[in-house]
Design goal:
By secondary structure, the chain is α/β, with parallel strands linked by helices. It folds into two domains: 176 residues, Alpha-Beta Complex (2-enoyl-CoA Hydratase, Chain A, domain 1), CATH 3.90.226.30; 238 residues, 3-Layer(aba) Sandwich (Rossmann fold), CATH 3.40.50. The chain is 34% helix and 25% strand. It is built from 16 helices and 20 strands. It has a six-stranded parallel sheet. The chain has a six-stranded mixed sheet with strand order 6-5-4-9-12-13, sandwiched between helices. Strand 15, helix 11 and strand 16 form a beta-alpha-beta unit. Helix 1 runs parallel beside helix 3, helix 11 crosses helix 14 and helix 13 packs across helix 14. It is globular and about 70 Å long. The protein starts with a strand and ends with a strand.
Length: 427
């Protein structure tokens, strides 16, 4: 009887799956990949051999204001490894550089001091300048013209006024931008709410190219790369991480060329073939990405790619922060008809996209494909308001799934496990 471990918060939940019902486990090879070097060695070597740019220390010479865009609290970037090495590299070329970390919150809430310490360590939080982006603070936003899609490109003033703009981050599969990292540091990272909602409009989200692992022809990616170039993002240092949130690959240099190298490595490790099943169990990879229901949609899209029509998705996400998006939550609480909800989204002009509409659209799409049973610490009523069935353990969720499928004449349904739904590209 296979025993599968599923990340849940900072812990794991286990399930014994009967042999006759076990369809398989979809897991990225990254979790078994051994780079043979420490995280620090990987990042340092990447900084010493950038792709498509000079070394960062050379680029920093003569530059007074240097801004490092850094991910926020919702991203498991090993900044304790990356940030000190980037700082050392900049100061190697320019000891007097005025350096500021700009936290790319996108449209998320403000990152707390405790979260900054958890991300960077106490020394950097105590000794370095850190500014947290606010997508609604118009005094700190600058209009740089139009995106290829026609939307306004409005980004943080600190980035625009920097003599050298660089970014740290990580590359993973992304459910509508294709991949995280690289150009996403600017859009949505440090963009205005107006710019983000235009880029995440219904037509773009509905586009078949706006899917996990796809950049070719992806209108969201095209806008994002243009935004990064226009904001003069000159250099990135991105890593690929394993299930322990440790860097196993690092790349630095040009925002596009370095990112391409990083995602080529990622794809070599994380593409898995679909195994169509009536029950698919997925997660958001545990902490920090499973702190709320909003983010958990990402892990559900891995299940969406392989669950049979009318089947059941069991999603594990601690969600101790609750729903994670007020408008996202209210959209589902107030509209019980998913088809009407989807029709309303598609009828919304790009410049009138409501906040979180993109997440709601994708969530509605997958809810229309399968019933979702949600294991979490969130209140049952909240989970129900979001059109899901609450559960608090894997055996409870599986019993509910069996009951739902038995009513459809599907008994002893096959069970597919995806221990980390955000780390795989399901083909």
């Amino acid at each position: 009887m296979p025993v599968v471990k599923f990340p849940y918060g900072k812990d794991f939940l286990e399930l014994d799956i009967p042999e006759n019902r076990y369809a398989g486990t979809l897991v990225s090879d990254m979790h078994h990949y051994n780079p043979g070097k420490t995280q620090e060695q990987l990042v340092q070597e990447a900084l010493e051999h950038p792709v498509g740019t000079p070394r960062l220390c050379e680029m920093a010479r003569g530059k007074k204001k240097v801004v490092i865009i850094a991910s926020d609290h919702t991203r498991p970037v090993p900044s304790k490894v990356i940030a000190p090495l980037m700082l050392a590299e900049i100061r190697r070329g320019n000891p007097d550089a005025d350096i500021t970390f700009l936290i790319s919150t996108g449209c998320h809430r403000e990152t707390t001091k405790e979260e900054l310490v958890n991300k960077f360590g106490e020394e950097i939080v105590k000794n370095e300048k850190i500014y947290i982006h606010d997508c609604d603070d118009e005094s700190m936003l600058v209009n740089l013209g139009k995106l290829p899609s026609g939307g306004d490109l409005i980004v943080n003033r600190m980035a625009v006024e920097a003599d050298l703009l660089v970014a740290e981050g990580f590359i993973e599969p992304h459910f509508f931008a294709g991949f995280s990292g690289g150009r996403k540091s600017v859009l949505p990272g440090i963009a205005s709410r107006k710019t983000v909602i235009y880029n995440h409009n219904a037509a773009f989200i509905d586009d078949p190219h706006s899917r996990t692992g796809v950049v070719e022809g992806n209108p969201i990616h095209i806008d994002m790369l243009y935004a990064a170039r226009t904001a003069h993002l000159a250099f990135i240092c991105n890593v690929v991480i394993n299930s322990e949130k440790e860097a196993i690959f690092a790349v630095s240099g040009d925002v596009d060329l370095a990112h391409i190298k990083g995602r080529e490595f990622l794809c070599s490790q994380c593409k898995v073939k679909s195994i169509p099943s009536d029950i698919v169990i997925s997660t958001n990879g545990g902490y920090p990405l499973d702190q709320n229901i909003y983010q958990s949609v990402k892990g559900m899209t891995a299940a969406e790619a392989t669950v049979n029509e009318g089947g059941v998705t069991i999603m594990l996400s601690k969600s101790n922060d609750g729903h994670g998006g007020k408008v996202f939550y209210e959209t589902f609480k107030n509209q019980k008809d998913l088809k009407q909800m989807m029709a309303d989204f598609m009828a919304t002009p790009a410049d009138q996209t409501i906040i979180d509409q993109w997440q709601s659209q994708i969530f509605a799409r997958l809810l229309m494909r399968s019933t979702v049973i949600f294991i979490s610490d969130a209140p049952d009523e909240m989970v129900s308001d979001l059109h899901m069935i609450p559960a608090h353990s894997l055996p409870e969720a599986l019993a509910k799934a069996d009951e739902i499928l038995a009513a459809k004449g599907r008994k002893d349904a096959k069970i597919l496990a995806i221990p980390d739904g955000v780390s795989v590209i399901v083909l």
